[in-house]
Amino acid sequence: MCGFSVALRLGPGIADLGEVVERMTEVIRHRGPDDEGTFLSGPVAMGFRRLSILDLSPLGHQPMLSDEGQVVLVFNGEIYNYLELRGELQALGHRFKSTGDTEVLLHAYLQWGTDCVNKFNGMWAFVIYDRREGKLFGSRDRFGIKPLYRYRAADCWLFGSEIKAIRASGLCEDEINWPVAADYLINGRLDASAQTFYAEIEQVRPATAFEVDREGAYREWPYWRLEDAPAVDPRDPAAAFAELFEDAMRLHMRSDVPVGVHLSGGLDSTSIICATARWRSSQKAPGNLMAFCYQAQEFDESALIADTVRQTEAVMFDLETSPQAVWDDLSSMLRYQDEPVHSMTPIIGYQLMRLTARHGLKVVLNGQGADETLAGYPSYFRDYWNTLLRKGRIGETWHEIGSYVATHGGRQSGVFLRQLRHFLQGKLHKFDGYRRLASWNDRRRARSDDWFAAGLSRYLPVWRSAGGSGDLNESLSRSIRDDPLPLYLRIEDRNSMAHSVEARVPFLDYRLVSFAYRLPANWRMRGPWNKFLLREAMRGRIPETVRTRPAKLGFPVPVSKWLVGPLYEALRERITSRQARERGIYNIDGIVRDLERHRRGEVDVSANLFRVAQFEIWSEL
Length: 621
Prior knowledge:
Number of helices: 25
Distance between the termini: 25 Å
Structural class: alpha+beta
Number of strands: 17
Shape: globular
Helix content: 40-55%
Largest sheet: 6 strands, antiparallel
Strand order of the largest sheet: 2-3-1-9-8-10
């Protein structure tokens, strides 16, 4: 896990390319405090900050050059199957000096060219300067676990691991991207496209590779699609998934430094820590298994966590915080994030990463990605029932809803009728005319929102996408590709790297994701159970109290309560500040009115209030 910056000069307008990259790399030193390096030759400059995880020796130094010096690499992430690839490359005649994955990536490019990305199992963002062909080649991993941003200036291309690196170049304008900002303030939408909160600074999208030639022509292409995942043998999905999961964990435990776990009382992190404990036992790993946790008093999962600790013999470290401490860390977290976040929960994640670093760990595992790939959110029940209805299985839908309400509550007939209405709306959403009407209605509602000036809504998209209400696989694909996984991975990366910690996410091993995607829908959802496949696969592997719990929490924060209690004054001060009034996009009286209604318990607008306050804090950074 590291950070890098790259500049490609296209004309005479930049006097000192080295200084540009030095500025870019300096502002991301938190991503790699262990080593630094630069490369400068002709029109290309590269800067690198290293966090040493594999091969702690100087042989892992970057930028890394091929033996003849014609190919130069900067790389952030981990290629988990690097040992297997190393063996394959050695059989083809390649020789290695180091024991890490960076040199394996470099030789993979030398052997297979741009097709090398199809060989990798891991998380990565990299840029290669191929001096033989006078081009840059780069890629981002299949799910976007590792970040990469790009910016085209008048006389150069810039690439960086964080937005702040590009901003520090001195070659771009710090202009707010108002279509993105308006979509966030009005609709709460984040990270749903390549655009960022800064005009012209964009993400390289997940599962994408690109080339830039010496004239500056940029070409990119997708090298992987979830929808193209191969068919699977469904005879014993739970056993097959369990075997794949254990292998994914084996790869994710490859590290030359200790590995810890972030633990909640949930299914995902419990599966990870129990697998970690099994691996440590098999390898006779020294030291203690360290786990880090946060529990709000309002969402007590201590009994479930205690069951897991008894099984794994992990040493627990609890995060102790307060509403004021969370609020005080908001500015610092946003400085590392570069963009707003969706709620106060990421601040807890930021504090957990700080706690992890203070106990000397550089690598931590967590359950990010399981909800989006294995159907963990309650909304996926509707998509599952939709899948059944689309296949004409009305009786089965009725039965599944009955099993659901028996556990979660509600009237079977009422839920069934609402599902039919949802199904029909999804059918209508496929028609251009309906989407045009829905888009018009969205904009009409936005214009009538008395929190914001009427002009803000003009930045919203004029056309609603054809996503609609499809089946379960369609919904999961959108969750992975567009919303919310890209946001959560961005938050995870910045929070961890703010404290020089590498976050690993075993559930996003592409083999696990592909396998689950190709199974029938009733292996993701069944009766009252979400993540049915994972629950069956973990039978006998994790505590039954966790495996059979229907609720999902994670690391929740009682934000609604905090904003009317200990954080009320700070929130009101921020919303009514001179800066907020002068920005010209708010109706402050309308916001304050609803703040007071929220305080009296008449409405819950905590998420909306936090968005406005956070946007104002972010705009000052």
